[in-house]
Amino acid sequence: MTTITAGELAARGFGASATRFDRALLRAASAIDAYVIARVERRDGAERRRALTAQTAASGARRDAEALAATGMLPR
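and the corresponding C-alpha cells:
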C-alpha cells in the first residue's frame, strides 16, 4: 500500500533498479498484506461480506460504464 511502483519511479526519472533484497522485501510486504486482509475478512460477518461484494460489483459496473462513455459508446 505504501510502496512506489517501478512505473512511477520511471515516470519520475529515477533510473535505480530493484535489487534482490528490494524484491524480497516487496514480496514479504505483499504476503503480510494478503494475510491481514484474509484475517479481517474472516472476522467480518456474512452480511458485511455480502454488502461489500455487492458494492464492489456496483462500482465495477459503474467504472465499466464510465469507460465506455469516455470512448463514446453509450448503452441503448
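(Above: one complete record from the training split.) The mean pLDDT is 78.
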